[in-house]
Design a protein that fits this description.
This protein has helices spanning about 5-20, 125-145, and strands at about 40-45, 60, 65-70, 75-80, 90-95, 100-105, 110-115, 165, 170-175, 175-180, 185-190, 195, 200-210, 215-220, 225-235, 240, 245-250, 260-270, 270-275. By secondary structure, the protein is mostly beta strands. The protein has two domains: about 25-105, Immunoglobulin-like; about 110-280, Glucose Permease (Domain IIA) (Distorted Sandwich). The longest helix has 18 residues, at about 5-20.
């Protein structure tokens, strides 16, 4: 174990000891805005009869555990990420064998058409597909990570300076071929610009992937995960504890890109959500 990894281990162990002495409850003075659309966040009040008043209960959406937070009046709320593929209509959060219904409203995202000269990044070769499948399994496992030893921040800072170039949720066409919707927020920035952690987190994994290029995934706790793609340089190691504004890497143009920028994804309970819902975006951006 290198010095940096050992130092990160000590910081992480100390953080665990500090959190272990608490009640285990997450408390917030303010909650995210209730935005129950595909790619949004549902903020669902939990009936007083459902959870224990002594510690945080476990709640689930689509068989995946979701974040539970008590507000300043000690009323529990489930903070639920809604996947882009979710159908409008009635959905449920389950807690202590109770089903709590909420309604997902429809939302239509704009289209984006991109032309790529590298045809393999539109229609990968068979040997690429094996690599893509292997990398997808790594990233899916990271998005499913659940760390209750970290207290997540529900206000994220902007990870890199620059204008927002491609919004979340775009229905994408590469060389006129439909592909998955844009599951993150693109920030235009010059190659080599520093990328900062938007909140305290542990590095879940890093890698150099076919589509995403050099990539970092951070675990902020309780199912809140963020991802940073197309980097030119990765400055952190797996298992390292990072604090808000720590430089984790540099902007690049690796993977499937048309130029340097940061692709930033935010995930709640393994559902990619619009990062703007957890941050303030200036009107001139």
């Amino acid at each position: 174990m290198g010095f940096n990894q050992f130092a990160a281990y000590l910081r992480y162990s100390l953080l665990f000891l500090l959190l272990a002495t608490s009640s285990g409850r997450l408390v917030a003075n303010s909650l995210p805005t209730h935005t129950p659309v595909p790619g949004g966040i549902a903020v669902i009040e939990i009936p007083a009869s459902a959870p224990s008043t002594e510690q945080s209960p476990a709640a689930y959406y689509r068989d995946t555990r979701v974040m539970l937070i008590a507000n300043d009046k000690q009323v529990w709320h489930a903070i639920v990420g809604i996947p882009l593929a979710a159908k409008p209509g009635t959905h449920h959060v389950s807690i202590n064998q109770q089903q709590i219904a909420f309604t997902v409203q429809p939302k239509t995202y704009k289209e984006q058409r991109i032309t790529l000269t590298n045809k393999r990044q539109v229609n990968p070769a068979p040997m690429d597909m094996e690599r893509i499948g292997r990398e997808k399994r790594i990233m899916v496992a990271a998005f499913k990570d659940w760390n209750d030893q970290l207290t997540p921040s529900l206000t994220l800072t902007k990870p890199v300076a620059g204008p927002y170039s491609s919004p979340f949720g775009l229905r994408r066409f590469f060389n006129d071929q439909p592909r998955n919707p844009h599951s993150g927020l693109d920030i235009a920035a010059p190659e080599g610009a520093p990328i900062e952690a938007p909140a305290t987190a542990v590095v879940v994994t890093t890698g150099d992937y076919f589509f995403n290029g050099k990539t970092i995934l951070l675990d902020h706790g309780h199912g809140l995960i963020s991802m940073y793609c197309h980097l030119s340089q990765i400055n952190v190691d797996k298992g390292e504890l990072v604090n808000t504004h720590d430089v984790i890497g540099l902007v690049g143009k690796t993977g499937r890109v048309t130029g340097p920028h940061l692709h930033w994804s935010v995930s709640l309970n393994n559902a990619r959500i619009d990062p703007a819902l957890l941050m303030k975006i200036a009107s001139d951006e």
